[in-house]
Amino acid sequence: MMGNEPTNFIPALTDQEGPQPGPSWEKRGWLDTVAGSAADLVAAMDPTEMRLAVAKAAKDAGRAMDPRAVEKAAALSIAAMTLVRLYRVRGHMAADLDPLGLSNREGPADLTLEWHGLAGKEAEEVYVGGVLGMEWTTVGKLHQRLREVYCGKVGLEYMHIADTEERRFLQDKFESPGETIQFTPEGKKAILAAVLRGEQYEEFLAKKYVGTKRFGLDGGESMIPALEAVIKHGGSAGVREIIYGMAHRGRLNVLANVMAKPYRVIFHEFSGGSANPDEVGGSGDVKYHLGTSTDREFDGISVHMSLVPNPSHLEAVNPVVLGKARAQQAIRDDLAKKDQVLPVLIHGDAAFAGQGVVWESLSLSGVPGYDTGGCIHFIINNQIGFTTSPKFARSSPYPSDVAKGVMAPILHVNGDDPEAVTFACKLAVEYRQTFHRDVVIDMWCYRRFGHNEGDEPKFTQPLMYDAIRGHPKVSKIYEGRLIAEGVVEPGTRDALAAEFVRLLDDEFEAGKTYKPNEADWFGGRWAGLNKPVDPETARRNVDTAIEPKMLDALGRVLTDVPADLDVHKTLDRVLAAKREMFSSGEGFDWATAEALAFGSLVMEGYGVRLSGQDSGRGTFSQRHAVWVDQKTERKYVPLSTLPHGKFEVHDSTLSEYGVLGFEYGFAMADPKSLVLWEGQFGDFANGAQIMIDQFIASGEAKWLRANGLVMLLPHGYEGQGPEHSSARLERFLQLCANDNIQVCNITSPANYFHVLRRQMLRPFRKPLVIMSPKSLLRHPLAKSDRADFLGDSQFKRILSDTTEIADDKVRRLVLCSGKVAYDLIEARDAAGQDDVSIVRIEQLFPFPGDPLAIRLKRMTNLQEVIWCQEEPRNNGSWFFVNERIEEALTAAGHQGMRPRYAGRDAAASPATGLASRHKAQQEALIADALGLNA
């Protein structure tokens, strides 16, 4: 291009943060992207420079030109170069993308010769200085070439990218002769065969399973050879693993024809059979939600592939795939280059434009701790969302426009041209492997049937479906093209189809007797783990204590400040208090117990990954996992200096849905790392409810995918208003069944230490939800001693009263969980009640019914059992625990006795925002629980 190019100001993507001059908030290399791009795109070329360039070029070519001719030629060149620039920016708007021809794709007026004053000058020669591989050409040939390059079956959007090198790479791939869409005869035949497999597979399913939903790919079959190109060209470019995520449409086709899931297995599932042996259990899921994993080989290079299971929330799988990819990169020691593991996400057009999690996932691109080195996004652009036309689904021209926010190049492509779609995927792989950034393919196609095969689309789109009904299939169009080129003979398509259908018939018969012989959920890195046979025993018989030498060593790591690090004066006082804890063996607080759990696991060879908004320091300035030099802002992470394992803590983007999904995906891939997501406040989990409902709570039952993710959700009523009091404990408890998750509300630092270690040391993985504290982080009663971490100590599902009261003396038993226990203890002790015992249920699910019954049986003088909670009656634990407590009372011999509720009245808002009202409510519920009002 003519003129000065802006410098490359997109920094290299790296997870390494070192000391740098200037403020920490400044991302190095960032300039004014808008001004930089505008200068490159539309700034006028200097006429004097152009005259000099034309004169020199004419002289070099042996052309004699007088000054008047040079002036005229320079003016023509400026007009021609302006035309070139506008085609680079806006040529995609005139590209031939819609297979149905229903979209108005004439393009803007500024792509015409008339607009540039070049009409009638088509035969005039013009100097273009190497653009499109030409020095001198005619205006007509230049315009024709620009139309071929930018307005064919592929439309390229790339001039929003700020990086000069990336733009030039894409520009060269489109404009340089020999770099455009070119396939050998054998390659063309392979593309035709792949398209036919996609088509015939859908037709076969339609005939064998009439009226059954399959969300077929009909109309978008060009995706099949295109995805195979990702495998083939990815493998040759260093990719050894591809992780896919996609919604319903075309999923069964991808499973069969890309992932190579045996046809007989899919037919077995269509007939109502299970994907797993009967004895494995689980609820199962519909066939178009299931995933699989396999290996495929092209040109002698084997690539492992997995398709992550997905619920009906169309884009929910996106961050899960990214998190899994990041974990696999870490496992393969590929985090530096990120060449070996490639995430590929397949989207619908309406969902890509409409679902917020798409942006939450895109925004992780390039962020330290979350970057995956670029994701390939493939949009199956049906040009409709269920019954909604594009003009009602978005305000922008394309569904892909949101991807411009991360400066991803966008390749719009006509789905009726399988070569163009395959070329787009090949180029996407090259770009991703070269620059390690996201890239988008927007394949314009159509949905031959309705939203599903039983839907009637003409209710709402009669004209579109009239056009679809008369539109030939992709294979028919492509075969005609290949016949015209002399690549195949007439009848090739029918012969290939017949051969493939014979294979499907054989597989269909085999599917009738197929029986799965094993589940695939405890292979690979999960080898050695299992599903607990006896939940009660499995949870108790685990040694989580550490040796004194390890505790002392960790104490030094957590309190020694490097000589060259200037820490904040308040942090210095915090560290001094920690030194006193380790010296005296008393007063261990929440943050120190947590650090001991993390550090001990790392020293034992496990990974620990903590992620969330402001998790490095901690929302309440309690954690200080990262120490920042007050003069240079150099960061020092004490636990990352430990040997054997790896500790990492990341301050995430301001996202819950996306980041929680990312961490779930990371834990899905790596059971040997303790993966934790921390909400800044517990109620922030509301924004991630889809991940909680569809993946965390039910993923194991639906898909046989175990997961050990830990959620830390600050919870407790301290007068901070409705949004910062409740982590919505009741919602998690309502999801509890079939031994699916663990829910804890812990009050002891040592118990927190043990539950974190237990999470990794048991031979199985279950998600763990912790109502983590706020005021208890520094509460004088919420302390632990050195002995609580050593010897035979372990996690206690039930914690006894801090005051020792003989069991046979207990008249009133107050059961509770969480921070309210200490309010009760202080009020009871102040009142001098010596027959009231306060017992904490630290683990709410699985509920410790048997040990509670044993305790209750010893209380022979028991007259009242109270359940006390801070949350309103319709929130919190009451509706979950009351029947379970009654069952424990019956088992203990206290027939007819039922627990009584003490807490706030039912309320629409989780908490009051008035400090005075909060105080009055809290005092009332404490008095009610202890019987102080009588």
**Parts with pLDDT < 50 across at least 5 consecutive residues:** 1-44
What is the CA-atom radius of gyration, in angstroms? 33 Å
- Count of distinct structural domains: 4
Oligomeric grouping of the chains: single chain
| CATH superfamily grouping of the largest domain | Thiamin diphosphate (ThDP)-binding fold, Pyr/PP domains
The overall pLDDT average reads 90
H/I helix tally: 30
**In CATH, what is the class of the largest domain?**
Alpha Beta
Counting DSSP E segments of at least 2 residues, the number of strands comes to: 24
In the sheet with the most strands, the strands line up as: 3-9-10-8-7-4-6-5
**Do you know the CATH topology of the largest domain?**
Rossmann fold
CATH architecture of the largest domain: 3-Layer(aba) Sandwich
Quote the beta fraction: 5-15%
**How helix-rich are the residues, as a percent range?**
25-40%
Largest sheet: 8 strands, mixed
Distance between the termini: 88 Å
The best one-word shape is elongated
Helix/strand-derived category reads alpha/beta
Enzyme class: oxidoreductase
Domain Transketolase-like pyrimidine-binding: 588-779
Region (Disordered): 1-24
Protein name: 2-oxoglutarate dehydrogenase E1 component
Write the layout of secondary structure elements.
Elements (H helix, E strand, L loop, with lengths): L32 H10 L4 H14 L6 H24 L34 E3 L8 E3 H12 L3 E4 L6 H12 L9 H24 L14 H14 L4 E6 L4 H7 L5 H8 L21 E7 L2 E7 L9 H15 L9 E8 H6 L1 H7 L13 E6 L8 H4 L16 E5 L3 H18 L3 E6 L17 H8 L4 H12 L6 H22 L21 H6 L7 H12 L9 H16 L5 H14 L3 E6 L14 E2 L6 E2 L9 E6 L5 H13 L3 E6 L10 H8 L2 H5 L6 E5 L14 H6 L7 E3 L4 H13 L6 E5 L25 E2 L12 E5 L3 H12 L4 E6 L1 E3 L3 H10 L5 E9 L5 H14 L8 E5 L10 H16 L4
Parallel strand pairs: 4-6, 4-7, 7-8, 8-10, 9-10, 11-14, 11-15, 15-16, 16-18, 17-18, 20-21, 20-23, 23-24
Antiparallel strand pairs: 1-2, 3-9, 5-6, 12-13, 17-22, 19-21
Helix pairs in contact: 2-3, 3-4, 6-7, 6-16, 6-17, 7-14, 9-17, 10-22, 12-22, 19-20, 19-21, 21-26, 22-23, 27-30, 28-29
GO biological process, one term: glycolytic process
Keywords: Glycolysis, Oxidoreductase, Thiamine pyrophosphate
Cofactor: thiamine diphosphate
